[in-house]
TrEMBL record:
Record-linked PROSITE patterns: BPL_LPL_CATALYTIC
Coiled coil: none
GO molecular function: ligase activity
UniProt keyword Ligase present: yes
Domain BPL/LPL catalytic span(s) in chain numbering: 148-340
Alphabetical UniProt keywords: Ligase
Domain of life, per lineage: Bacteria
Any single Pfam family the record assigns to this protein: LplA-B_cat
Protein name: Lipoate-protein ligase A
Entries under InterPro entries matching the protein: aa-tRNA-synth_II/BPL/LPL (IPR045864), BPL_LPL_catalytic (IPR004143), Octanoyltrans_LipM/LipL (IPR050664)
């Protein structure tokens, strides 16, 4: 008994632990899924799924809850989703969510995955950098997060020079007319992530990077993580009057055409580098002179002309580039916890060395000739 109340102490039997936890997952373009769970002896002892989704018939919700009972705390997203799928008959309709979404919410409740609200994002918007430094800063910030020396970041890039950035695995000669690039004063660099070539001119491009822990995209496929990490920018574009959607695998588009392309790099420690280049304005003739855009890519995108593939933000908003960027940052601050930051002098020195030894070298740029 306690001295204060005279009531007996509650005793939890050895080997049993009852813990009540809650996790949420917002499906990109879909609905919110919430899961309350209790665990005992390392297994799910109580599960209650809820949300603003649609489900028919009603009693399928009880089946979903029941399917998860007894699952190990260590179960993967695939295992949890499989358990849910196993009890769904042909007559069940899920609208706005999926078995995978339920599984991710369970993993978040158990602390294996994190939500945006679990993190404070550092917003970095420094001055213009040369192309090799942009690549180096991106890699460095991702490595800093991977090593636990920095939190997650949103970095807005400012470009010092016209640039073509090619994907890590692209052929230099197949993607870029280097003579035309030299003629136009365009620097060619290679990034660490895959994906396609991006044509960039200072003042005509909006580029940002997200560096996030792997726990934020835990359970998501590579494909789904793209739209998940860029869901915020669709809202930001809506704020400035652009109705954009995500086009698999990695494009952001409006009804008038492509707006942006994304790419990712996963580090060994789990950190995710996700960067997006968005056309604010564009010199299409110069772009087509420098880039070798093949017929196969045109046919895959369903268009006959590369000029028609990109629909710049400027033409859709009438806003100055600086105002669009400020609107983007304001939207991000409104959705997530943030603090202002900058690349530190020590980080800058290391990035300069990385740029000199790697990203500015002909060997790296032409590593796939």
């Amino acid at each position: 008994m306690t001295e204060e109340t005279g009531q007996p102490l509650a005793v939890v039997p050895t080997g049993q632990y009852a813990v009540d936890m809650r996790g949420e997952y917002k499906v990109p373009g879909g609905k919110l899924v919430a899961v309350d769970v209790e665990t005992e002896d390392g297994r799910l002892a109580r599960v209650a799924v809820s949300g603003d989704f649609f489900l028919e018939p009603d009693d399928a919700l009880e089946d979903i809850d029941g399917a998860l009972l007894g699952m190990p705390e260590t179960a993967t997203v695939a295992q949890l989703a499989g358990a849910v799928e196993s009890v769904l008959g042909d007559d069940v309709t899920m609208v706005g969510f999926t078995p995978e979404a339920v599984a991710i919410a369970v993993r978040r409740a158990l602390g294996h995955a994190t939500d945006w609200s679990d993190h404070v994002f550092e917003i970095i918007h420094d001055g213009p950098e040369n192309p090799a430094m942009q690549m180096a800063i991106d890699q460095l910030l991702a490595e800093e997060l991977d090593e636990g020396r920095r939190g997650p970041t949103l970095r807005i890039w400012e470009w010092a020079d016209p640039t073509v950035v090619i994907g890590s695995f692209q052929s230099l000669k197949n993607e870029v007319d280097t003579e035309a690039a030299d003629r136009h004063g365009v620097t060619v660099v290679r990034r660490v992530s895959g994906g396609g070539a991006m044509f960039i001119e200072p003042g005509n491009t909006i580029t940002y990077s997200l560096t996030v822990p792997g726990s934020l995209v835990e359970g998501l496929s590579f494909e789904r993580s793209y739209s998940f990490l860029d869901d915020w920018v669709l809202g930001a574009l809506a704020d400035v009057g652009v109705q954009a959607t995500y086009q698999p695998l990695n494009d952001i588009a409006s009804p008038a055409g492509k707006i942006a392309g994304a790419a990712q790099k996963r580090l060994r420690g789990g950190a995710v580098l996700h960067h997006v280049t968005m056309a604010y304005d564009i010199d299409a003739d110069k772009m087509l002179d420098v880039l070798r855009i093949g017929r196969e890519k045109m046919s895959d995108k369903g268009t006959k002309s590369a000029n028609k593939r990109v629909d710049p933000v400027r033409s859709q908003t009438g806003m100055a580039r600086e105002d669009v960027i400020e609107a983007f940052k304001s939207h991000f601050r409104g959705r997530y916890r943030t603090q202002e930051s900058s690349v530190t002098p020590e980080e800058r020195a290391r990035a300069e060395e990385l740029a000199r030894l790697k990203f500015a070298t002909p060997e790296w740029t032409a590593r796939v000739p």
